Amino acid sequence: MNTELIGTTLDVLGNVFIAIVVLNVHARIARERTIDAKVIGAMKKEKFLVIIGIVSVLLGYIIRLPFF
């Protein structure tokens, strides 16, 4: 198996796992309401950007797959 493919796969998985953890932490903080509404609003915007990031990483991986 191509080592570049393995490296790219691990990179994508790592990025997606980090993004999922960020989403979970944001959701937990928002549920607990231990911070003010302004911060919760900012976290909702960040959640949207994290989802876009996950989709971008996965699409980039899919686009690169045929070249391995």
Keyword list:
68 residues, mainly alpha, 2 helices, 85% helix
Describe the structure.
This protein is mainly α. The chain is 85% helix and 0% strand. It contains two helices and no strands. α1 (3-32) runs antiparallel to α2 (37-64). It is elongated. The mean pLDDT is 85.
Number of domains: 1
Sheet-strand content, in percent, reads under 5%
Order of helices and strands: HH
Helix content: over 70%
Total E-strand runs? 0
Overall form:
elongated
Unreliable sequence segments: none
Structural class: mainly alpha
How many helix segments?
A: 2
**First-last Cα distance:** 9 Å
Mean pLDDT across every amino acid position? 85
Main sheet record? none
- What is the subunit arrangement here? single chain
Q: What is the alpha-carbon Rg in Å?
A: 16 Å
Please give the structural blueprint.
Blueprint: H1 3-32, H2 37-64
Helix pairs in contact: 1-2
Summary of the model, kept short:
By secondary structure, the chain is mainly α.
